[in-house]
Every structure is written in structure tokens, then in C-alpha cells.
Design brief:
By secondary structure, this protein is an alpha/beta fold. Helices cover 36% and strands 17% of the residues. The protein has a 6-stranded mixed β-sheet with strand order 1-2-10-7-8-9.
Length: 299
Amino acid sequence: MTLQYPTIADCVGNTPLVRLQRLAGQTSNTLLLKLEGNNPAGSVKDRPALSMIARAESRGQIKPGDTLIEATSGNTGIALAMAAAIKGYKMILIMPDNSTAERKAAMAAYGAELILVTKEEGMEGARDLAQQLEADGRGVVLDQFANGDNPMAHYTSTGPEIWQQTQGRVTHFISSMGTTGTIMGCSQYLKEQNPAVQIVGLQPMEGAAIPGIRRWPQQYLPKIFDAARVDRIVDMSQDEAEQTMRRLAREEGIFCGVSSGGAVAAMLRLSQEVENATLVAIICDRGDRYLSTGLFDPS
């Protein structure tokens, strides 16, 4: 009998769900973290990256050898660069120049072409440039912000995994909001199983710069976002997100990024308000792609 070994694409998803041991404190609640940094390219974005390419292929919109274009703040770009390498596409990624060196290096390692816009132009400028390159015939924009294949990845994988891993006990789901694909897809699935599950989204406070999440201007609000699918939005300060991120590494052994620290900080707040609840937060990436920022340096 011929052994069937998995490919790297088969290793996306089915990430662990682990319990907080110290940060939770004395509580009747169960606080759980979904470790998306365990995906092959290191973040939750591996799921929609493969989904967007595979589903576009199945519709005949793209074929191997084509050039794909995407605006990204980092994690989606790394995931798409990996997925393009797996499936045989050229990848152009457009990102603000203040993204971490680790993110830029990872994208280049997978063979992607990087185009940088200024910090002031930001993600809005990157998104505009992606559309312009497509109009100029440089390639096809996947557009994670308006592409239904983004939340569909979480509706078909992340949400079902959480439901199964908690044996249907999840009462609160907490996720940072960037493209909003994770929270939209998980919300749809979890609410179908139990409409009482509370969906909590995280956004940065005015003036906070938390990588991967945004307070979008109305004209740039992701088209996949449906406010009716989020029960509560928590504003998070940069300091609280960073402090919680460092505590996760030092007190729990969970090494993650700033937006994940914010999601756990929001979960700890919520845990003070409820009893006998099962709260699940998304740890969307790993901390090693933030080392050059100095955020983990001894204080």
C-alpha cells in the first residue's frame, strides 16, 4: 500500500486550543486561547490565503502562473506568499514601510515582490495602489477586504474547530478586527450552532497603533464586515495590549503579537463580568515576527 503523506497545505488549520493557567486568576470561567501561530506560515491568515486562491482557481478566475496582488499589513502577505509558492503563482504584496523587518523578510523568502508605501499612506494607500496595479494589467487583486472567501475559510474551519474543541460549551468568542474575516466567519458559524454565543470584536483606541488591527475610516471599512454579527466592540489601548502580550510570554509561555495581547486583555476584562462561562480568544500569530521592535526587551 502506498503511503499518502500530507503536503504543507494540508497542515493549515486544526490548531490547538489551550487554557490560561495564571493570567485568568481565581475565576469560575474557563479562558481558552486558539493558537493560530501554529499554522505553517505562522498566523491565522494561512486559512483565508489558501481559501482565496483555491476558490478563485475553482471558479476559473485565476490559474497557476498568474500574478496575484494584495495590500497587507503583514500576516496576510506572508500567508499569501506561502500559498502562492505552494500553488505556483507570482505574488506582488503592497505594504506600509513601517511593517516589521521580520514580516518583510518572510514575504521575500517565499518569493514575493514587495512594494512599500509610506507610513502616512498606510493601509488605505496600499489598498488604493493594489487597485491601480490591477487596472494597469499587472495582475489580479484577491482583495481580502471584500472577498467572501476570506470569512468562508473561518466559517468552514476555525468556527467548527472551536465548537468541537469546546464540545459546544463556548459562550464568548473574542477576536481582533483587521480585515474582519476571522470574526465574520466564526460569528456566522458559532451563532448558527447557538445564537446565545457572544461575539466580541477588538479595535484600537484612537491614536493606538496595534499591528494588524484598525479603526477603519468609513470609506475603507471592509465590505465583508457586517456589524450585526458582532455583539460588542472593545476599544483597546496600545499599552494594555503590549503589557498583556509580554505577560503571556513570561507567565504563560505563549509567545504572540500585540493584537493577540489585546484580545486576551479584552477576554480578561470580560471574565470579570461573567460566571461559569467559556471564553475563547484568537491568538492570531507568533511573537517572533515582532522581535526587531524591541517590544519584548527586558524593561
